[in-house]
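Minutes, project check-in
Item: structure for the 193-residue chain
Input as provided by the requester:
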Amino acid sequence: MVMKGYNTIAHDYYTHRDLNKFNNELEEFSNLLPEGGKVLDVGCGAGIPTAKYLVKKGLKVIGIDISDRMLQMARNNVPEAEFILKDMRQLDFDDNVFDGIISVYALFHVPKQEQRMIFQNFHRVLKSGGLLLINTGISESEGVSSFFGVPMFWSNNNPDTTLKFVKESSFSILFEGVLQRGGEYQYWIIAKK
């Protein structure tokens, strides 16, 4: 449902999205990474703003997404990055290969009972000292609603559960809290392996 939905609404979604609403978080994340570091953008969408921002900072970006249509847009928008069709629940990258992982506005499309495993895989593919930046919703919920005119699946743990999963995956927390960006409240975490 998520893949089909984003394939249908890709252009409309990006036309109406505030592409600068979390620049502060992107700046903080990129400043903590080594020069020329390798970053995995999980749920990269059309590559803007995240992949584009990070590439401009001199980072090597690999973006993954389950939507072909979004990836086509990403390749056009950010030709300097590499984009791969992949479900975040099936990360088959080698261990210890990324300096950073960012997943924003994406985790809440994965069933909440599978999110702990995702954080464990994030930890596995990050190098020692690697950084994680994620956001998700602020209240526990699961269901389907209309999103840009198509059915879309949403699933959130509450912030305490999300934080617990990240800590149980052996991350150290650098920042966690609810932030308002672009008129929306999201729960954000920056963590270190």
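Outcome recorded: The longest helix spans residues 2-15.
No further action items on this chain.
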